[in-house]
C-alpha cells in the first residue's frame, strides 16, 4: 500500500459528536420556552430524517438540495412529530437549524488533524454543504486544506460520484487518497471506487445504546484508535 497523498474524512459522527451537540442546542431552545421534551430524543429523530431525505436525491426523485435546506425541512417534521410547531416561528426555526454548525469535535480530532496536515492534504468528504462545513470548521477549529464532498458532486454519499469528485478536485488517482470514517458503509463505497480506507470506531455516536459500527466489518487498509495514528 502506498502512502496516501490526501486524506478525506466523513464528518458527522466521525469527526464531530453530532448527538450531544444537537441535543445541547435543542435543550437551550427548549429551556427558553419551558419545553420538557427530551432533547436527545429530539436530536435522534431529527438525525433519523437525514438519510431518507438524501435518498430521494440519490434515487433521482429530487434534484440536488444542500444539506442545510434538508436539515431545515427535517426540522419542521421533527417539530411536528413532538407537537412543538406552535412554539417556534420561522426565524426561531432557522436559528435552531444552525445547531448543525456547532458540533463539538471528538477529543482526538483537532490535534490529530494538525499532525496529519503537516504530511498530507486533509479535507472533509461530507454530505454537508460547503457553507456548513466551513462554519463547522470555524466553530470546531478543524484545519482543513479545502472543502470537498457532496456539494461539488451534486449528490450524496455513498454514491460513487461523491468519492470520485473529491479525487478529481485534488487531481489525484483514487488509490492516492484515503477515506477515513466511523461508518463501515461509507468505507465499503469508497473502497469500491478504488480509494484506500481507514476505520475509526465512535461507539457512542448514536448514544449509549449504539449497536452498529462498533468494529470494522471490512478489509480496511487501516483501523485506528485516534486520528493522530494516521500521521505516524
Automatic annotation (TrEMBL):
Top-level class of the enzyme under EC nomenclature: hydrolase
Gene3D superfamilies found in the cross-reference section: HAD superfamily/HAD-like (3.40.50.1000), Putative phosphatase, domain 2 (1.10.150.240)
Source organism of the structure: Pseudahrensia aquimaris
Xref: InterPro entries: 2-HAD, HAD-like_sf, HAD-SF_hydro_IA, HAD_sf, PGP-like_dom2, S-2-haloacid_dehalogenase
Family from the record: Belongs to the HAD-like hydrolase superfamily. S-2-haloalkanoic acid dehalogenase family.
UniProt name for this protein: (S)-2-haloacid dehalogenase
Catalyses which reaction(s): an (S)-2-haloacid + H2O = a (2R)-2-hydroxycarboxylate + a halide anion + H(+)
Function: Catalyzes the hydrolytic dehalogenation of small (S)-2-haloalkanoic acids to yield the corresponding (R)-2-hydroxyalkanoic acids.
EC annotation from Swiss-Prot or TrEMBL: 3.8.1.2
The entry's keywords: Hydrolase
Coiled-coil positions: none
One Pfam family here: Hydrolase
Amino acid at each position: 500500500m502506498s502512502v496516501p497523498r490526501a486524506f478525506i474524512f466523513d464528518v458527522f459522527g466521525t469527526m464531530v459528536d453530532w448527538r450531544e451537540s444537537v441535543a445541547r442546542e435543542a435543550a437551550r431552545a427548549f429551556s427558553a420556552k419551558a419545553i420538557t421534551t427530551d432533547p436527545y430524543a429530539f436530536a435522534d429523530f431529527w438525525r433519523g430524517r437525514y438519510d431518507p431525505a438524501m435518498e430521494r436525491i440519490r434515487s433521482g426523485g429530487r434534484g440536488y438540495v444542500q444539506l442545510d435546506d434538508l436539515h431545515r425541512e427535517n426540522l419542521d417534521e421533527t417539530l411536528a412529530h413532538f407537537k412543538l410547531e406552535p412554539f417556534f416561528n420561522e426565524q426561531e426555526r432557522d436559528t435552531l437549524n444552525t445547531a448543525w454548525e456547532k458540533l463539538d469535535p471528538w477529543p482526538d480530532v483537532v490535534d490529530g488533524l494538525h499532525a496529519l496536515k503537516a504530511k498530507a492534504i486533509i479535507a472533509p468528504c461530507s454530505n454537508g454543504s460547503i457553507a456548513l462545513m466551513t462554519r463547522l470548521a470555524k466553530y470546531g477549529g478543524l484545519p482543513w486544506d479545502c472543502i470537498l464532498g457532496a456539494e461539488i458532486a451534486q449528490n450524496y454519499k455513498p454514491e460513487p460520484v461523491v468519492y470520485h469528485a473529491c479525487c478529481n478536485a485534488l487531481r489525484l488517482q483514487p488509490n492516492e487518497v484515503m477515506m477515513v470514517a466511523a461508518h463501515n458503509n461509507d468505507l465499503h463505497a469508497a473502497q469500491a471506487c478504488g480509494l484506500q480506507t481507514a476505520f475509526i470506531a465512535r461507539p457512542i455516536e448514536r448514544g449509549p445504546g449504539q449497536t452498529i459500527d462498533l468494529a470494522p466489518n471490512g478489509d480496511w487498509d487501516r483501523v485506528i484508535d485516534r486520528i493522530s495514528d494516521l500521521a505516524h
